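Narrative of accomplishments. A recurring question from our advisory board has been how the design workflow behaves on a single, concrete structure rather than in aggregate. To address it, we present the structure tokens for one chain from the evaluation set, followed by the sequence designed for it. No filtering or post-editing was applied between the two.
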């Protein structure tokens, strides 16, 4: 049996706060929103009494899953890419400079677009909760 990709998941503390960023700034279409609760879910995710509020978005055929858990754990500040277990969502654009220029002023970036030794141009953004999103142009 071969595993196939289904989604990339990002845990957030507030769907209401981050969904506009993924929809309006990154241009991802909302596929569905739903809530999952019950003993099987709690046991499956290993969080006693858990409820998950989900939003599934389409990133050109890659499903991005945003999930808000109840009960909520404390947010870890200053997520950095070199920390083991760090994650990020990578999205490719045709013109990274134009994308960067059109970002709303309140979107936090790590740096303007940079050209790496491999020739790929990258910049990293933070969603409203600090989760990292890589924008790249190859």
């Amino acid at each position: 049996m071969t595993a196939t990709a289904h989604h990339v998941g990002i845990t957030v503390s507030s769907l209401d706060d981050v969904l506009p960023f993924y929809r309006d700034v990154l241009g991802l279409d909302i596929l569905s929103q739903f809530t999952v609760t019950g003993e099987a879910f709690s046991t499956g995710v290993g969080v006693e009494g858990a409820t998950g509020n989900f939003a599934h978005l389409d990133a050109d055929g890659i499903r991005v899953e945003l999930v808000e858990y109840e009960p909520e754990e404390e947010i870890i500040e200053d997520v950095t890419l070199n920390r083991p277990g760090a994650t990020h969502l990578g999205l490719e654009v045709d013109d990274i400079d134009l994308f960067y220029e059109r970002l709303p002023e309140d979107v936090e970036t790590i740096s303007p677009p940079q050209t790496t030794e491999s020739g790929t141009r990258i910049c990293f953004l933070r969603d409203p909760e600090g989760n990292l999103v890589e924008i790249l142009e190859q």
